Amino acid sequence: MPLTYQDYLDGIARAEEAGRIKYLRREPNPHHPGARFSHINKSPSDQGRVSMMNTRHLSPLAQEALEKVLNAKGNQVFHYLESGLGLGVAAYDVYRLAKATNKAVRISSLGQEPIDPQTALTANYAEILFKLGVQYQGFVASSSLDVLLESNSRLDPDKRCFDSLPEPYISTQYVGTFPDDFTDCQSLPQEVDFIHDDHGALYYGALHYGSPIYESLRKAVSMLTPDGVIFMNIINRGDNEDISNLLKTHPDIRRVSGHILAKTSSVLAQ
Fold first, then answer.
1. In this model, does residue 269 exceed pLDDT 90?
2. pLDDT at 211 (0 to 100)
């Protein structure tokens, strides 16, 4: 049967009931972040949007770093945190990579809205437009999630943009905004091996919502395992004072490259 937008919302509801979605925000309506990157429909006249901003894949640089850390874990469970979940494309990249290499993975996320963790979007925005082609101008005009789901059901199986999964590919979703809802580090995931933030929750918290870069990185560091790694766009802003202060106050952290901070015992810091 075709996958509908209501099916997608029902999947979110099942994840909520299973305790896989934790709402940390202060607003009474958990599906109303008030952000321009929203993908949940809030009313019939305000469609949830699919865009380049919420459908990013894991970048080649991030994947290269992640594979080294994943392989170093051996048979241990690899805990990955996607900071800025969007529609879950990068997180699903990690899930598929782990499955392909027979690695045990636990994926958590920070995001402004929930997703259905058993309906995985496999394509970014450009790939979606290519798959749909010019015959689906309804989606091109609206870029809404409900139209995408309806259009997807009419595609040939090898061109479809969603995978229906027998199990959730994201273990726990933390829903809120940084820094307002993520002020208490204890409410965030702990013992994370790899934090990925590609213009995500920590990045936008630091650059657009008045939170110092130092505070974003300090919170990220607090979530790491003893050999954990942070891949984050904000690190690539040069040797600014915030990053210098972080390295001074956290002697167990090393700047490995333009995008990467790692614990000194990490495979990337060797």
1. no
2. 61
For residue 36, the model assigns a pLDDT of 56
pLDDT digit string, tens, across residues 133-151: 766 666 766 688 888 888 8
145, two tokens? 């999630």
Q: Which of residues 176 and 100 earns the better pLDDT score? A: 100
Neighbours of 107 (CB within 10 A): 24
Element (H, E) at 194: strand 192-197
Q: Which fold has domain 5-269?
A: Rossmann fold (3.40.50)
Over the stretch 51-81, which tens digit does the pLDDT of each residue have?
A: 888 899 999 999 999 999 999 999 999 999 9
Residue 244: strand, helix, or coil: helix
Burial class, 126, CB count within 10 angstroms (exposed 0-12 / middle 13-18 / buried 19+): exposed
Extended strands (E) in 45-141: 78-83, 105-111, 119-121
Q: Provide the H-helix boundaries in 112-223.
A: 125-132, 137-142, 145-152, 201-208, 213-222
Q: Residue 34 corresponds to which amino acid? A: G
Q: Whole-prediction pTM value?
A: 0.90
| Contact residues for 83 (Cβ-Cβ < 8 A; gap 6+) | 109, 110, 195, 196, 197, 200, 201, 202, 203, 220, 232
Question: Per residue in 44-73, is it b (16+ CB within 10 Å) or e — as a string?
Answer: eeebbbbbebbbbbbbeebbebbeebbebb
Structural domain boundaries in the chain: 5-269
Give the helix/strand (H/E) hosting 16: helix 5-17
Q: Residue-wise over 232-258: b if at least 16 C-beta within 10 A, else e?
A: bbbbeeeeeebbeebbeebeebbbbee
